Amino acid sequence: MTEYLIAFNDEWVPPHTREELLAKAEASVAVLDEMVAAGVFVYGAGGIDGSTALCGVTSVDGEPVFTDGPYVETKEHLGGFAVIDVPDDETARYWAGRLAVALDWPQEVHRFPPRIGPAAKFAPSREA
After folding, report:
1. Which segments of the chain does DSSP mark as H helices, in order?
2. Is the pLDDT of residue 121 over 70?
3. What are the residue boundaries of the structural domains of the chain, listed by start?
4. How many CB atoms lie within 10 A of CB 84?
């Protein structure tokens, strides 16, 4: 199985009323519940508020340098995401399509590389 990130940029989302956002949340949670039932859901979060960006950090001369927000030059930020573990790209596209329809805004799909070396020991076990 391969892990995929399905995500959207909050700037892709047009303004919504509170009622519209609640309806979108209900529709997307229904899709996430289906992901859980199918055994493909790993982790997710939605409704990430851009004002909650804590900081950005870079390395300067071997020391961390912190700045406000994720990037100084942009206001883009992650609006929400789901990580799924599915057998192939086609299945990842299926779930991304379900979220795109439920939310009625674009989604991006990214494939995580296989976990190898020291990082593999941090991979959660999905064996029951």
Report:
1. 18-38, 89-103
2. no
3. 2-115
4. 25
